[in-house]
Amino acid sequence: MALLEIKGLHAAVDGREILKGIDLTVNAGETHAIMGLNGSGKSTLANVLAGRDAYEVTGGSVIYDGKDLLELEPEERACEGLFLAFQYPVEIPGVNNTYFLKAALNAKRKYHGQPELTAVEFLGLVKEKLKILHIDQSLLNRPVNEGFSGGEKKRNEIFQMAVLNPKLAILDETDSGLDIDAIRAVADGVNALRSPERATIVVTHYQRLLNYIVPDFVHVLLHGEIVASGGKELALKLEKEGYAWLEQDLAGAAR
Amino acid sequence: MTELTTNSTAFVDRLRTLETKLPALQANALSRFLYLGFPEISNEEWRFTDVSKLAGADYANPLTTIEADLSYIEANRYELILAAEAAIQPAADATSVILFNGLPVAGEDQDPALGVSIRYLSSADSAAGEIADTESNPFTALNAALFPGTLQITATAGAALEQPIEVVLISGHAGSSAPRITSPRIVIQAGENSQLTIVETYISLGSGTSLTNTVTEALVSRSAIVDHYRVNDEAKSSWHVSALAAALDASSVFSSHSINLGAAIIRNEATALLRGEHAECTLNGLSLGDGDRLIDNHTSIDHASANCNSHEVYKAILNDRSRGVFNGKIFVRLDAQKTDAKQTNKTLLLSPEARVDTKPQLEILADDVKCTHGATIGQLDPSQVFYLRSRGLSEGEARRLLTYAFAGDIVLRLKVERLQTALDERLRVWLA
Fold first, then answer.
1. What angle do helix axes A119-133 and A150-164 make, rounded to 10 degrees?
2. Residue A100, exposed/middle/buried by CB under 10 A (0-12, 13-18, 19+)?
3. Which of A137, A161, B152, B269 is surrounded by the fewest CB atoms within 10 Å?
4. Is B405's CB within 8 Å of A90's CB?
5. Do A73 and B395 touch (CB under 8 A)?
6. What pTM did the predictor assign?
7. What is the CA radius of gyration of chain B?
């Protein structure tokens, strides 16, 4: 059974339809890239899957791990193992990163009927993940994302992902605004977390991130629809030729 | 000598009969009060805080209740001490003083450290009245007329007490059911280079109509350091009016932290006069409003000397139909060059029916100064709530965590560990 099965998904923001029938199947262990120009609906798809309430689902279905994802609250989705790495991680002054992570992890454990981690167990886990991701420990005592550089914010997202250990990770434009070193650092983190149990959806505008996070499948989103799917070579073709040929194909098909 | 006022209530009429029974200074203050009258909302300073309920109550004669209170204390001293200890849970070696309706219960005559003394003085003997504004603040005038005595805390030059002096001010009806007005008065005198920390905690014994009208004066001499905390945790049936007046000499450091958790109506006035160069003043506040409560914080910082700094952060979290008022005055006089003043007021509205009125009021005459102020009023940020939910926290947990974080920086600024822990715990319970 597929981990994620999206069928005919339609979604609107402020009454304007952004997603116009998305079909996508993702299995455990796979990495999918969703590429597209700004405004194509990539981030909308990511946010709809995470459950942001500004987005209204107007049609279609999403089955995640055997459950109707669209029926779940955002926190239930998170506890079921879905993780969205935000395009713009939110700053939360006054909430310390460690406290936040502990609250999140324990919420998830409680959901699954597991006891809370002790302080020692939690710290052990956190330190192990920091080491894998080569992140400095000072990150722990800072307020969540407050005063972080763009690169630090994205790495903090990956760090949260490592601690929460999701089944399905959606990286929403994790490369945007980062220089090449920062992209590499983030990609190394993502790659370190790859596993046969985990699926990853990488949403991006550019191919360059995919040099480091090599996808099994690439899908191109245009005007709210997936207009092309293929292997990683599709991303290279897009890099070389841009999106114009897809626009023409689409126009041709419409005629 | 009494002039006509617009208020004419049974209580005001009763006060008129007291003029001849009071010592001269107090009689003067009483006539000032009778002239000013209880403030009405047509008075700009009281525009958002309607005290007509306070003004209309038929308070018992404040002079005759002193006798009753003294015998009540005599008979119930142990219970009063227990109530105070339950409220603050002091450390075993803490220095504490307990007052009941402004009268001494325990700890009012001690020297907790070399050069540091605590005394309860009759109104005639104390240093009360040097800096409190009896002229224009009617409640301060009323306190000056009726205060039964002064708790005077003194540090001589160079004396220091690291531990806080915990003053618990209990208000209660002492067996009678008539509305009560009580007028506690505290004077803090910090000599040159001395250091004092004072925590005032206001609680009620039982419920019933009562007005606590309290005044604290702090004289902070050259290079002295005074940290002042006041926690209001009175019964929800209480009214509370306070004035804190501080005068800062050169190079002194004064901080005030106002934590408002109780009472039906609270009106605090904190005023600081920076009268020596290089003085440093901090005024912080945190108010938690729920039900129909009203919490009004008026602050005033007078930069009367050059090279002084002031920082001010007042925050309020308002739920239900509660109301908040903030008015922050900063005066920078003509020769107060190089003043650095910063004022921040933030209010979090947790309910659509909660309301706040905020007004920064800066008057700057000097030309080489740095003065900033900012006020924000808002609800919790939906993008922050979503971010936390997307990591597994329920909506309720997310909202609680964000609300707690909003108050957190004020909690962290409390330098008394007991207060930090107590407020932290209180916040968690309040938010649950």
1. 130
2. buried
3. A137
4. no
5. yes
6. 0.88
7. 21
